[in-house]
Amino acid sequence: MSQERFDADDRAAIVETCTKMTYYIDERRWADLHTVFTETITLDYGDLFGGPPTDTPRAVYVKNAERLLGNLDATQHLVSGHLVSGSGDQAGCISQVVAFHVKPNSSGGPMWTSGGQYDMRLQRCEDGWRISAVRAVQRWCTGNREVLRLGKLDA
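Request: output the structure for the sequence above.
Response:
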C-alpha cells in the first residue's frame, strides 16, 4: 500500500461513496445500493441490534436493507462531518449520522430516531471507491423502535 495521502479528488470520491449508501436507502434505490459496496461487507451493527460483526455478501446486505427499511413510510439519514483517513487503495471515513425511521402504527409513536456515527472502510476498485466495512455506533436514540419491526412485518 502506498503511503501517499489522498488528493482532493480521492477525498471527494470517498465522501460521495459513503453519502450514496444512505441516499440510495432513503430513495429506495436498491439496485444502485449494490454499486457502493465490495462483494463482501464486514458489518457491525452491534450497537443498534446486538451481535458480533459479520462478513456479509453484498446481495444479502441489500436484500436485508430492503426488507427492514423498504416497508417503512420513510427514512432519512442525515450524514455529515466526514473525516477521511488512509492512503493508497485503502481508506477510512468516519461520518456523523442522524437517522429517522417513520411508520405510523397502533403500537406507539410513528418514528424512531437514532444518532451516532458510521465508521466505514473503503477499498479502491477498478470502477472507483467501494465500502468494504460499516460499523454503526449509536450515541443516542428516541421514539418507538418498534417501527423497524412493524415495517418488516408488512413485507
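Helices lie at 8-26, 30-33, 46-49, 58-69, 146-153.
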